[in-house]
Automatic annotation (TrEMBL):
Its EC number is 4.2.1.108. This is L-ectoine synthase. One of its GO terms (molecular function) is ectoine synthase activity. It catalyses: (2S)-4-acetamido-2-aminobutanoate = L-ectoine + H2O. It comes from Nocardiopsis sinuspersici.
Length: 129
């Protein structure tokens, strides 16, 4: 059984901070459970474009509001608490938070915590030994 608090993740190498978001990676590939689990806050008034070409991501909003655009179709969605979006087709997308936007995210395959978005917004596929 794994029991872990956000306080244990704060200010470790699993607490990733950028100009537009902060992601605390609570469960990672090294835990060997087949997925990773993160709490992420995207900051109000920012814009982040992403493309998880190597991962499926589920994002469940627990606080705030954001517009998510499918960059491939132009379709836009307003995401509020209790709403999720699932990037089951590896869609390129852009998130524009209207307020600080707190979400819980699940990745498959799991991320290691060492991934960095490349110039296309893609996480490389890193396999944990």
């Amino acid at each position: 059984m794994i029991v872990r608090s956000l306080d244990e993740v704060n200010d470790t190498d699993a607490d990733i901070k950028t100009e537009t978001w902060r992601s605390r990676r609570i469960v990672l590939a090294k835990d060997k459970v087949g997925f990773s689990f993160h709490e992420t806050v995207l900051y109000a008034g920012t814009e982040t474009s992403m493309w998880y070409a190597n991962h499926i991501e589920l994002v469940h909003c627990i606080e705030g509001e954001a517009e998510v655009t499918n960059d491939e179709t132009g379709e836009k969605h307003i995401i509020t608490p209790g709403t999720l979006y699932l990037l089951n087709g590896h869609e390129k997308h852009t998130v524009r938070p209207k307020t600080d936007f707190r979400v819980l995210c699940v990745f498959n395959p799991p991320v290691t915590g060492r991934e960095v978005h490349d110039e296309n917004g893609v996480y490389p596929l890193i396999v944990e030994d």
